[in-house]
Structures are given as C-alpha cells and as structure tokens.
Amino acid sequence: xxxxxxxxxxxxxHVIGIESIPDGSDGQLVETIRVSPAGTAGGTAVExxxxxxxxxxxxxVGDDPIGVTLLALLEREGVxxxxxxxxxDQQTSASVIPVRPNGDRPAWHCIGANGAFTLDDLDLAxxxxxxxxxxxxxxxxxxxxxxxxxxxxxxxxxxxxxxxLAPGDPDMLAWVAGALPHTDYLLPNDEQVLGFxxxxxxxxxARALVEAGVGxxxxxxxxxGALVVTADATIEVPAYAIDVVDTTGxxxxxxxxxxxALSLGRDLGGAARLGCxxxxxxxxxxxxxxxxxxxxxVVAFVRAR
Length: 305
Prior knowledge:
By secondary structure, the chain is an alpha/beta fold. Helices cover 33% and strands 23% of the residues. It has a nine-stranded mixed sheet with strand order 5-4-1-8-9-10-11-12-13, sandwiched between helices. A four-stranded mixed sheet has the order 3-2-6-7. α8 packs antiparallel against α9 (268-283) and α9 packs across α10 (295-303). The longest helix has 16 residues, at 268-283. It is globular and about 55 Å long.
C-alpha cells in the first residue's frame, strides 16, 4: 500500500489533569504535557505508517519551530514529508487540548497554514504510483478543487477516501459536494453525518451520502463502534472494551485501520474491525503516537477478542 495523505496537518499539545483554568496569572500543576502529530491527514499518516503502509504526506506548515517539530515527529514515524510545503507568512496549525479527569477534552485551535494550502502547492506528478489517496479536510480546498484532486487520483488507478474536520452542517456538505462523486470511501463521525444530512437516524444519513455519490460511508460512533453503509449493505461493528485515556485522534486511527485493512483484501466488516482496533490502541494513550503497535499486534488484538 502506497498512500498519499493530503490536507490537514496539526501539532497537538495534550495537557492531562486539567480541573479548571487558574484565576489571573496563577499556575497549576498537571500530570502530563505531550505533543503529537495530528489532523485528518497528519494523524492518519502516522497510524498508516505504523500499520506498514508507505506514506507520503502533502499539505502546508509554517516556517516556525512548531513546523520543525511536526515534521520531525512525522519523519520519526516513517512518513515521507517532502510534499509538505513551508509557508513563511503562516504559522503551523496547532491545538492545545486540556484533558479533564472525566475524559472531556475541549480544545484551542489555530488554523494557520492549513487554511493557506491550495492545489497549486501540490505536485500532482508526486501521486504517480500511489495505490490510495486520502484527503483530510476538503473544506479548506472547497468541493470543486477537492473533486479535481480525487478525480485525478482515480485516473491514476488509486482508491480515494475523504475525511472532514468541520462539524456537521448542511452548508458545509454543500461546500464539499463536488468531491463526493469522486470519493470511494467517506470516513466521518456520527455527529457529522447527522448534521450534514438532517436525517433521523445514522443509517439513513449514511445512505443519503451514498446517494450523493459516495461509494461507501464508514462512520465512527465513539464507544458504540462503527457503521458501514453502501448502496447494498449496512454493517455495524462494536467498539472494543478498553480503559480509555484520551480519545484524541481516534477518528484518524479508525480511518488508517479501515483503509489499511481494505488494502490487504479484507471485507468491509473486517476493515471496520481493524479500524476500531487501531482506534483502541490510540485511546489507551495520548495522541496519535500513543503506545507501541504495528499491523501484527493490532491484528492479534482483533483475533484475541
């Protein structure tokens, strides 16, 4: 599997043990502070690489220390970052995520260079030889440009997939609608599906997205697992019972596991199970690079359950 992950790249800073924001200029001790690569392209890239895929990342970062750190972390995970352009007038996209003792994780986020990335920053020739093209955050490109990119990927014989970052909203769906007919696999969460479509149930919402042109919709449902819908089938896969530490990046992990399983010839149900299992590895630590796992260990995790 040789996959291009294109779009949103973020450096996440997780702060564990936040009970409240101190008053004034007071300080507060916390349990852990950790940084990790993230984003619907960057986070997915890390997990795909851990699962044995050859990964090339494309997007934009700033010419700043945050960008240096993000690139170094991606390279450490085996991701080819030569397609990430540096924007001197932008800061690298970053988030600060305070994790409360009950697991809640509000976030502060700076869009930064992700908002400045365009198709002009992407050398389409670099996609030659890719078996898969995954676009994370099509809302920054817009549906027309995203559709052009995915149509080009298909012309090369690549399988295409799409994951949105924005919350579910009918206007957002309309904004990216031009990309849907060129998308083999759409990988949203349940809130996005219901928000995009206004459907009374998740299955009906996913079917509406299939009718809009998507080949398959694989929806994450948090602790409920995943729902996979095509024109001919509806498959539900439960989540694995684990001790959750932090769910940041679990959606990206599901995407990675799902796509990697498909590349290995797994059926849709098997792909969803590997996706949920990959998400389970991430949920037991902090961020996308949590713990130590590879394809063999994640497959063993599935078989053991």
